[in-house]
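Translate structure to sequence.
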């Protein structure tokens, strides 16, 4: 099922969560620097302090993360949620030298006896690596967690970003290949030398799911988790209303949107060329890199947004489907139960997955 909505001019599209008291804005940035970064702003309208949600923002995962509780005023719960995020950042970051992933990529973790390229990892790292391999296989390598040798060459945050040297990209591509990585229990094996993992396209989703688990354990039944644009709703608002998650209008104020969705207890994640990019010689280079070529994907897509039960699935599928392109990406989404997607092509048409409107109420702005 498709529905069209053409934007009149080029612009940045990203997900926002619009609530009665708070407005969250941001985008999911699958960045070359391990855990993604994005900009986020929060505005609060005046109202009864007794009914306003409890919210806190912190700079973690190289981005602004916000936790909002609607049915609790317990500050220690939010503090605990931030601790959960910090814990996993110390495991999954590709650039923090003390992180477990950094040590894995640099071969300084304990090696399995009689093996040069097998390492013992924690259960937490083994679990997310398994998730990453799953989506690498599902996308036939279009999404590949072993892309670190390539992604580390690109710096989209530099004041003067440049396309890496062709020879460097060609050499890095040779080191990429999820088929050469194996996980057995807590043992990770690289079959080729100089392999490395980048979890930037999946880590925030996995961490958001862990934060939700923590909140539920604390008795929270209504909350919003926003990890730099990875939006995960816990339940619904105390009033029984859904959270409204929308797509911002291109080149407009952050409060202007082209459509909103009613979301209950679901995750909304997007990936797109607008998240990190630069121009060189009149050509746009963005951060979603093709593991086969080492350069940005060119497939007429601007963004893919995934609505799913788990945020880790939204993360993995948004990148996978973007990489696959509209036709193959839509085919993949339509083959998976309880997952929906919105694809936006470079003519600014919005394409919805089959059955989208049966499960999710959408209102388009005129």
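Result:
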């Amino acid at each position: 099922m498709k529905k069209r909505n053409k934007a009149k001019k080029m612009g940045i599209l990203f997900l926002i969560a619009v609530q009665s008291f708070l407005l969250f804005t941001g985008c999911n940035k699958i960045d070359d620097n391990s855990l993604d970064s994005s900009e986020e702003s929060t505005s609060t309208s005046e109202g009864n302090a007794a009914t306003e949600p409890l919210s806190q923002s912190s700079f973690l995962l190289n981005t602004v993360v916000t936790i909002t509780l609607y049915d609790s005023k317990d500050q220690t719960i939010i503090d605990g949620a931030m601790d959960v995020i910090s814990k996993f950042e110390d495991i999954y970051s590709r650039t923090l030298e003390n992180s477990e992933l950094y040590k894995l990529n640099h071969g300084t973790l304990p090696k399995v006896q009689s093996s040069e390229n097998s390492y013992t990892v924690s259960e937490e790292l083994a679990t997310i690596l398994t998730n990453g391999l799953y989506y690498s296989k599902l996308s036939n390598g279009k999404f590949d967690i072993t892309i670190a040798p390539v992604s580390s060459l690109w710096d989209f945050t530099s004041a003067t970003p440049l396309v890496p040297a062709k020879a460097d990209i060609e050499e890095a591509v040779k080191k990429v290949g999820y088929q050469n990585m194996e996980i057995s229990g807590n043992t990770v094996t690289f079959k080729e030398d100089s392999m490395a993992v980048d979890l930037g396209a999946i880590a925030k989703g996995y961490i958001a799911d862990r934060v939700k688990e923590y909140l539920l354990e604390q008795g929270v039944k209504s909350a919003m988790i926003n990890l730099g644009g990875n939006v995960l709703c816990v339940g619904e608002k105390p009033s029984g209303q859904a959270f409204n998650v929308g797509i911002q209008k291109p080149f407009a104020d952050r409060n202007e949107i082209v459509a909103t969705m009613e979301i209950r207890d679901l995750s909304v994640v997007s990936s797109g060329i607008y998240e990190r990019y630069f121009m060189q010689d009149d050509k746009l280079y963005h951060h979603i890199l093709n593991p086969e070529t080492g350069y940005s994907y060119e497939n007429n897509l601007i963004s893919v947004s995934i609505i799913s039960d788990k945020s880790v699935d939204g993360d993995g599928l948004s990148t996978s489907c973007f990489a696959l392109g509209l036709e193959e990406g839509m085919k993949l989404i339509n083959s998976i139960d309880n997952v929906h997607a919105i694809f936006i092509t470079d003519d600014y048409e919005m394409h919805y997955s089959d059955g989208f409107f049966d499960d999710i109420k959408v209102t388009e702005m005129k």
